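Hi again,

Forgot to attach this to my earlier email, sorry! This is the prediction with S-adenosylmethionine bound. I've pasted everything inline since the attachment limit keeps bouncing my files.
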Amino acid sequence: MTIFDLDVERISPALVNVASVPQRSPFRYPGGKTWLIPTVRQWLKQEGQEVSFLVEPFAGGGIVSLTAAFEKLAEHITMVEMDEEVAAVWEVILNGKNKWLADKIFSFDLTLDNIKSELDNPDKQIHDKAFCTILKNRIFHGGILAKGSGMIKNGENGKGIASRWYPKTLHDRILAISFVKGKIDFIAGNAFEIMERNLTNPKAYFFIDPPYTVAGKRLYTHFNIDHEQLFSLASRLKGKFMLTYDDTNEIRQLADKYQLQYKTIPMKTTHHTKKNEIIISDNFAWWVES
Ligand SMILES: C[S@@+](CC[C@H](N)C(=O)[O-])C[C@H]1O[C@@H](n2cnc3c(N)ncnc32)[C@H](O)[C@@H]1O
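Structure tokens for the complex follow:
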């Protein structure tokens, strides 16, 4: 682990040491769940054997899928993401020119002129799109790709746009994923459809991390989902699931309406304020009180 690995993830659980979670994703994902990984590990280990099928319907930075693949917590994994820019990254890393992408990042000279010419290229192929997504994710405020986001000005220690650009670390993470990509399918599509398709599979584990009701709009291009429909779907899954949300009255009411159990878990935001998130699950036999 490098110092960068510790630095990238500033959101941490109030009670868990994030250093125990290897950073495997090339993204610094807004609303990313690296901080929840210790809890996700407990959830995936609930039957005392490797999970046969894990679905991550709102994959984003994909830290749960990657961790499950590397740590042999799941044999087969399906990641789903609707955002075209984010999807391009996963397509290229898992099924495309991953070495090209890793090398392009490693050798890129991060100047404003070079950034502009990459982003303004009108004729992008999928690997160019993937590169531009990683570039934006690293040089835009908070890694936010949604409209209205813009480049970091001062950044950490006055390093500006370079303050989150770690070419060697990103190169290595992308190539490392090759070792587990045989276990992972990526679908550029709609979470609801894939969940519906696997509704009656008793062996499936669903890690569901949708855009939240309050912050979603600012953070993601695709934020507008039907939260009630998601609760309804979750309540009908025959497999196991873990659904995460912000702790609001609306979400507690939906959980009650669909008779779903939940727990709260404390975390620290990027601004170092503490808040609670909600974990909803089909059962909590796996939950360890901290
Ligand atoms: C909270 S983020 C997931 C973060 C992820 N768990 C991580 O740790 O990086 C929610 C993601 O869902 C995606 N999304 C929104 N609506 C979707 C849909 N209907 N189907 C698939 N993905 C969707 C957004 O683009 C966003 O990447």
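The pocket of S-adenosylmethionine is lined by residues 29, 31-33, 58, 60-61, 63, 80-83, 86, 190-192, 209-211, 220, 222, 225 (CB under 6 Å). The domain at 3-281 is CATH 3.40.50.150 (Rossmann fold).

That should be everything now.

G.
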